[in-house]
C-alpha cells in the first residue's frame, strides 16, 4: 500500500467537510482539512445562521407594534440600531467558528488554514507550495453567489456582504425570486427600507407549492414590498451622490441606494485543479458524483453544494456522514433525497415537504387536497389581517400524505415534526385520529378538511 501523508484530505471546512472530517477521524482515519477562510462554511459564517438571526431581529418590528394590543405600553417610535444587531450577530459567528474549530481539533483533525488545490488523484498543493498526499480526497468547497454580467454589476452586493453593511439603506433593489431574495426582502423591509424585488420571470420561489408561494406574494405586497416581474438587468449607473440607477428591460429605470444580487449560487470549482485528476464537471461547474459521492476519479469524492444536487446544509451534513461511514467506518450508507423538508424564512415564513399539488397530479393522477386557511389567534388580537394557509396533498387512492405545505407563524418549526409523518408514509386518517393540541396553530394539521 502507498505511504500517504493522510488517509483523508478534505478541502473545505463547511458543514459537509466538517462532518466528514470529524466522523472519519472518529473511525480511526488520519485526517487533515484545508480551509482558506474560516471553519464553519457558508451556513455558519455568511449564510443561514447569521441570516436567521437577522430574521429574528427584523420580526421585532411587528412584535413591538402587536405588543400594544396585548397591554404593553410600547412607545410609538422605537429606535433601532442596525450596528448593534450586526455586531452581535458577527460575534455569534465568531463563537460558532471557534466551536467548529474546537470540535475538529478535539477529534485530532489537522486544520490547515490555507487554500488547497488538487494536483493529482492522491495529491493536493497548498497555497504556500507544500504538497500533501492522501488515500482519499474529499471536495467540500461549497458554492458562491452568482452575479449578473450586466454593465455596472460591480456596484451591487450579494448576501455575503449584506451582513457587514454600515447602515440600512432607505431603498433596496433585490434581483431574484428565490429563498434568499424573499428572505432579505422581508429583513430589509422590516428594518424600514423600501424594497423592490425584480425577477426575470413572473414566478417567485419556483418549486414550492403554488398556493403557498402565491400567499407569500399577496402578504408581501400588502406589507409594501414592490415586485417587478419579467424584468431583466440592462445595467447599473452610479451617480456622484452614491445612488444607483438600475436599467431594466420592459420597465422604467429604478433609483435605489443598494442593489443586492440573489440570483442563484455556483459551485466553487474554478481553479481547483480537478482536471489534473480527471474529475468531470457538469455544465454548471458542479462535480459529477455517483450515489456514493464518488467522482469520476476513484480516489476523489465530493459532498455539499459543490455537487449542486440539493443546496441545503442538512443535506451536506448527511452526505459528509454517509461518505465517512461508507469509506472509513465499514458501514455503507447512502443519502435518501426523497421527502427533504425545506423552509423560507420570509415574513411570514413558509415550509414544505414532499410533492406539491401539481407534482402529485402529474405523478399519481388521483389526488385529494385538504386545506386550512385561517387567521392565527395572535394575529386576531393584534388586529393583524395576515392569514396562514396549511395544505395537505394526499394520494387519492390510498390516502397516504405525499405533501405538506404551509405558510404562517412558526411554519418551519411545525413542519419539522410533521415531515416525519410524511416520510413514514402516514395517511390522512392517521392524522385525523390524532387528538388536536389546543389552542395551537399546529392543531390545524389534524383538523384539515
Written overview of the protein:
By secondary structure, this protein is of the alpha/beta class. It has three domains: 6-145 and 266-328, FAD/NAD(P)-binding domain (3-Layer(bba) Sandwich), CATH 3.50.50; 153-263, FAD/NAD(P)-binding domain, CATH 3.50.50.60; 348-446, FAD/NAD-linked reductase, C-terminal dimerisation domain (Enolase-like, domain 1). It is 31% helix and 24% strand. It has helices at residues 15-26, 41-46, 48-67, 82-106, 159-162, 179-190, 210-223, 313-328, 357-364, 377-381, 411-423, 428-432; strands spanning 6-11, 31-34, 110-112, 116-120, 123-126, 131-139, 143-145, 157-158, 171-175, 194-198, 226-228, 232-238, 244-249, 254-256, 258-261, 265-267, 300-302, 342-344, 350-354, 367-374, 388-395, 401-407. The strands form five sheets. Strands 1, 2, 3, 4, 5, 6 and 17 form a seven-stranded mixed β-sheet that branches. Strands 8-15-9-10-11 form a five-stranded parallel β-sheet. A hairpin with a 5-residue loop joins β18 and β19 (350-354). α3 (48-67) runs antiparallel to α4 and α3 packs across α6. It starts with 5 loop residues before the first strand and ends in a 17-residue tail after the last helix.
Amino acid at each position: 500500500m502507498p505511504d500517504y501523508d493522510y488517509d483523508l484530505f478534505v478541502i473545505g471546512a463547511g458543514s459537509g467537510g466538517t462532518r466528514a472530517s470529524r466522523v472519519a477521524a472518529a473511525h480511526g482515519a488520519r485526517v487533515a482539512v484545508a480551509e482558506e477562510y474560516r471553519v464553519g462554511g457558508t451556513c455558519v459564517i455568511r449564510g443561514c445562521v447569521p441570516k436567521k438571526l437577522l430574521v429574528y431581529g427584523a420580526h421585532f418590528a411587528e412584535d413591538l407594534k402587536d405588543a400594544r394590543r396585548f397591554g404593553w405600553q410600547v412607545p410609538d417610535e422605537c429606535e433601532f440600531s442596525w450596528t448593534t444587531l450586526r455586531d452581535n450577530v458577527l460575534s455569534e459567528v465568531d463563537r460558532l467558528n471557534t466551536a467548529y474549530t474546537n470540535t475538529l481539533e478535539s477529534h485530532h483533525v489537522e486544520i490547515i488554514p490555507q487554500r488547497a488545490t488538487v494536483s493529482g488523484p492522491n495529491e493536493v498543493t497548498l497555497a504556500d507550495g507544500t504538497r500533501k498526499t492522501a488515500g482519499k480526497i474529499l471536495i467540500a468547497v461549497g458554492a458562491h453567489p452568482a452575479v449578473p454580467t450586466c454593465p455596472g454589476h460591480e456596484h451591487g452586493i450579494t448576501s455575503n456582504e449584506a451582513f457587514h453593511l454600515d447602515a440600512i439603506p432607505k431603498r433596496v433593489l433585490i434581483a431574484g425570486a428565490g429563498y434568499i431574495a424573499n428572505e432579505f426582502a422581508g429583513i430589509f423591509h422590516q428594518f424600514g427600507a423600501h424594497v423592490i424585488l425584480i425577477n426575470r420571470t413572473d414566478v417567485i420561489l419556483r418549486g414550492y407549492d403554488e398556493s403557498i408561494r402565491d400567499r407569500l406574494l399577496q402578504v408581501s405586497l400588502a406589507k409594501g414590498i414592490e415586485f417587478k416581474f419579467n424584468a431583466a438587468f440592462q445595467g447599473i449607473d452610479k451617480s456622484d451622490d452614491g445612488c444607483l440607477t438600475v436599467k431594466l428591460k420592459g420597465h422604467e429605470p429604478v433609483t435605489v441606494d443598494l442593489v443586492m444580487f440573489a440570483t442563484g449560487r455556483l459551485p466553487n470549482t474554478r481553479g481547483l485543479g480537478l482536471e489534473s485528476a480527471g474529475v468531470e464537471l457538469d455544465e454548471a461547474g458542479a462535480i459529477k458524483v455517483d450515489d456514493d459521492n464518488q467522482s469520476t476519479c476513484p480516489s476523489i469524492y465530493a459532498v455539499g453544494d459543490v455537487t449542486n444536487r440539493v443546496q441545503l446544509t442538512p443535506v451536506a451534513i448527511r452526505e459528509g456522514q454517509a461518505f465517512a461511514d461508507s469509506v472509513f467506518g465499514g458501514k455503507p450508507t447512502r443519502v435518501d433525497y426523497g421527502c427533504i423538508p425545506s423552509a423560507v424564512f420570509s415574513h411570514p415564513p413558509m415550509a414544505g415537504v414532499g410533492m406539491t399539488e401539481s407534482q402529485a397530479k402529474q405523478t399519481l393522477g388521483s389526488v385529494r387536497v385538504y386545506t386550512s386557511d385561517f387567521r392565527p389567534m395572535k394575529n386576531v388580537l393584534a388586529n393583524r389581517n395576515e392569514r396562514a394557509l396549511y395544505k395537505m396533498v394526499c394520494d387519492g387512492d390510498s390516502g397516504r400524505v405525499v405533501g405538506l405545505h404551509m405558510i404562517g407563524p412558526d411554519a418551519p418549526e411545525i413542519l419539522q415534526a410533521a415531515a416525519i409523518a410524511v416520510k413514514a408514509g402516514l395517511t390522512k386518517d392517521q392524522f385525523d385520529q390524532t387528538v388536536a393540541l389546543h389552542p395551537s396553530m399546529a392543531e390545524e394539521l389534524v383538523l384539515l378538511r
